[in-house]
Write a structure and sequence with these properties.
This protein has 88 residues and is mainly β. Helix content is 10%, strand content 44%. The chain has 1 helix and 5 strands. The longest helix is centred in the N-terminal third of the chain and has 9 residues.
């Protein structure tokens, strides 16, 4: 599912979304903006924000299960996923 178009359809009539949670498996990559989560078999990608900045950073190329809260779902931008848990 591409999250941004889905949320746009839900809110087009004035409905409010209180919270959006995502859980999925995929790889974590780095780019000039930081980390990005790319779920397996999905075209949707997420900018990844780590809650615990003291934890060991994710390693590229390893399959992770990531769960967390989504914010900043503006058209034309990858949503931001604040990870509650990242498990290899």
């Amino acid at each position: 599912i591409r999250l941004t178009p889905l949320l746009s359809r839900i809110t087009q009539d004035g409905a409010k979304i209180l919270r959006t949670r995502v859980q999925g498996r995929g790889v974590i990559v780095t780019d000039e903006q930081g980390y990005r989560f790319e779920p397996t078999n999905s075209v949707q990608t997420y900018r990844l924000r780590l809650k615990d900045t003291t934890a060991k950073p994710p390693q590229p190329g390893i399959l992770y299960e990531v769960a967390g809260q989504v914010s900043d779902t503006e058209p034309g931008h990858d949503p931001v996923l604040t990870a509650d848990s990242i498990t290899p």
